[in-house]
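User: quick one
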Amino acid sequence: MSGKDKQGLFELYEKEDVERADELVFGRVSDQNRRGFLRGAGLTTMTALVGAAIPFAANMPAGFIPVALAGEDTITGKDGLTLLNDRPLNAETPPHLLNDEITPTTRHFIRNNGIPPESFSPDGWMLTIDGLVDKPMKLSIADLKKNFEVVTEALTIECGGNGRAFFDPPAKGNQWTLGAVACSNWTGVRLMDVLKAAGIKDNVIYTAHVGADTHLSGKPGKLSLSRGVPIEKALNPHNLIAFEQNGEAIHPMNGAPLRLVVPGWPGSCSQKWLNRIYLRDVVHDGPKMTGKAYRTPNRPVEPGEKVEKKDFDIIHAMPVKSLITSPQTGGTTSNGVVEINGHAWSGDDAIAAVDISIDFGATWMKANLGVAANPYAWQNFNARVSLPKKGYYEVWARATSTTGVAQPHAIAWNPKGYLNNSMHRIAVRSV
Amino acid sequence: MTLPKLQSIILQVLLVAIIMIGAVGFYVTSSLATADATSNVVEPDELAQWGLPLDLGREEVEVYCSACHSLRLVAQQGLTKGDWDELFDWMVEEQEMEEMPAEDRNLVLNYLSKHRGIDRKLKKN
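Assistant: Done. Structure below.
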């Protein structure tokens, strides 16, 4: 089924009341206590779908969808994502589905650390700004829109652990391959403007972000993740407190109704379901700020080496990287010509060049490199390559940042499996 | 029932079935295959497909690990025995896991280091 159909159903069940959705999908009408099937309306359809009579059909609440129909792993409002984990929910996008210049909401990866909040409604959602500020504030989403300039920017968010699956020996955590990265349009207000309105005290060195999701253990009040950034990074004008994704409501699993977008740094800095930011005079020590989380060794280490906690540093900017999004790996060409498309991005920097090789890195050609929609948006590249004779080829892409740093061949192994920016390779056969 | 009417119902059912695949009420729905001695229901061993084959200790893995997170997370990992042991300590000390009785902890540790060691193969997506 196409993404459009899924989106349609998602919207149907989100926007319509459940009785209306029931009627549209099943022809079902519930009885007065919102259970069962009034005069059997819709029961035949549902019975046929589950393949058997339903003895307790009278107990089925309105809006109930038999689990037997779920079948394949499906994430509502997402299209073609690969599920890594369902509790907490983690899903990435295959590279060939990231070909759009701006990532559609349906194809933005999901990285949850805890249990999402129960409501994603903007009504009544409040953001607290406090800690070391002159004037603590409590702001509704309407207050944010009213009091601060609203801006829209294309911003790249990449999970710190993207590429972990290729680590040898393996590193703990979700085994992301290539697709925990996206560049959607985000609409919101500048984090900088809001912090300045609250008045940043002179001794502030770090932010601390809090979201409404809860810890997997279910322990009340325990946070699953609360990260922050140095105040210098927080004051970058491209960080947003966002309430729209691609001009519409943020996808619930991408942080609706309010989230931070701190582009260029590990995705975990971009707190989802944001309800509080406080300013501190120490490096923030919330969950996943300490220990070895989102940290790499302060020196090169041997694969598999044990590294002591004191030798780890907090990750700041994400490294230079590129992704070939067309053609899909494993394809064939009958005329020897391959049109290459992809994206390149680099932490706080821009991309200066993308080079392509079809001979396992022996020779390189320049790809056409586009300009970023705005700072912190990924840059699109394309190239046309001609394969000299029939056979197996790999197309490799290598991005170089404006600071002159290029992607490596090999993974700089680290114990927690972060920052794998080794070159992306796809297979192509000329037949 | 007339044939055209039957065809029409089958078509309608197929159409609705296709639509329904995307219409789950949960964000993700998947079923864990469970062994139930009292039931005659034959279910695919989905855990084995993920890389958690039936073996001594799997039941304990299911019970303890799935209390907080999906077994899919377990199935992705590949760690040395020492690292698994350290991971249990971390979950107990920092993630609100209840300490496992020593006998069960051994079963879990032995199972995971045997089937989810550093030579583990990731399930191809």
